[in-house]
Amino acid sequence: MYSWLKFKQAFRIVCVPRVFSRCLSSAEVSTALRPFYFNVHPDLFGKYPEQRKTNEYSLQQLSAFLEAQQSKRSITIPPLSFYVRQKDMPEGNFRLVKISLNSNDVRDTVVKVLNACDISTSYIDKIPRSTHKTEYREWIIENSAVAKEKYESTNATRKQVESLIERLCKNYGIKEVKYDSGWNISHIRGALQSLVSLSTQHSHHMDNLKDRTIALGQFTGVSLDGDVFLSIIDVRNEWLSLIKKVSQEDAALSMIPIYEKTLSSILRNIHVRRRKFMPKVSATQYCNHLRQLITSIGDFYGKGKKFSDLVPECLEKYEIVVEPEAGPLMVSPTGQFITPSSCPADELMAFIANHLDEATLLLTEYSINKHVERALYDEVKQRFELLDLRKDDSITPALMILCCQRLLTRKAHLNTLLRGNILYITHYYSVLNEGTLCIPWNFK
């Protein structure tokens, strides 16, 4: 893929406030230029090397020009040429756009680029040029102090949790004990106390957990990463049953790479991935899912069937995720093909063939968004001096980018109020018992 390193520097715009106008923040620039980048990204021109080369060169020139504006230097660059993808044009037909940039103002540059490509500037138009501050009160302002008080009130519980974890690790050689951040800290303490009690009564079985990572979460079993998960809502006997036979689960774990490689090879070297937030399954269950899908595809080929002629001979730039039988057949927001293990091979092959363009676009968008999200995440956490910044599984990088941008444009009002908080980005407003401040990504 086109190197993000050079282009992302263009988004790091540090502007000096002026008396009568203000410059665009780095978050505002990145948000404004994203739709343009999605239309000209070189990865979207894989079949067209000439157009790809032209866009790559012009993006590098644009990056250099924005960097010069950032440092208040004046440079001259030749007119930039971009081949722009058009939804209403046949495959392989692109509109050639030439852009001459000569302004020293970041806002003017962004607007000119967007206008040249017929991309709406409504986002930029809504950003005031004046530094005048609008007075307003928000839910965050009214509840940040409450969250801090709750966090302080659970300090003793958190220390107990740390002590219990330290005891388990020290006594039984456990590598790490972790837990999902969504659980109430009191529930975590209770689960750890139960685990300590169980370990005391069955210490001879605890050797099976030496050098392992224990995770308190939503299911009981060995995860695909080899972590020993213990469900908080399960009874201790189920925990003990897993601890006794944990080595059997390891046998399934060792088979996963073999099954994934087999599936990849029969789907033209597509990459078999696992979603970060995919439904929790044990290693044994996942092996069964892979084997079921492999068998179905094998039968498909055995009947003399094959992929559509429109599908490339190599699918290595695409990704597929195999999930439980009840899951959907879909393209994820990050561009991955998501298939249930029970999906008929005929249906899966047709779906892949019909959604390659969609997957390409979403994969490219995700490759852009994940870097922007990380940069803005770090900026928000540092700027507001947060104890931590987290997000719900359902908050995509695109939504997180918009949320971070909203926070940064309100930094003058929220800076001191958010300091020392744990901020959780989700779809609702709430203050959790342990002091986590929850806000929707599109908070007002």
Describe the protein's architecture and organization.
The protein is α/β, with parallel strands linked by helices. It contains 15 helices and 14 strands. Helix 2 packs parallel to helix 4 and helix 10 packs parallel to helix 11. The longest helix is centred in the last third of the chain and has 28 residues. It is flat, with a radius of gyration of 26 Å.
Q: How much of the polypeptide forms β-strand, as a percent range?
A: 5-15%
Task: State the separation between the terminal residues, measured CA to CA.
Answer: 37 Å
Number of strands: 14
Low-confidence stretches: 1-21, 131-137
Number of helical regions: 15
Averaged pLDDT? 84
Percent of residues in helices comes to: 40-55%
Strand order of the largest sheet: 3-4-6-5
Class per helix and strand makeup: alpha/beta
The helix-strand sequence is HHHEEHHHHEHEEEHHEHEEEHHEHHEEE
Largest sheet: 4 strands, mixed
C-alpha-based Rg, rounded: 26 Å
Overall form: flat
Brief descriptors of the model:
444 residues; alpha/beta; four-stranded mixed β-sheet; 14 strands; flat
Short description:
By secondary structure, the protein is of the alpha/beta class. The protein has helices at 4-8, 26-40, 49-70, 106-116, 122-125, 139-153, 155-172, 185-201, 236-244, 246-266, 283-302, 345-354, 356-383, 397-409, 411-418, and strands spanning 80-84, 95-99, 176-179, 213-217, 221-222, 228-231, 271-273, 319-323, 330-331, 337-340, 388-391, 422-426, 430-431, 436-440.
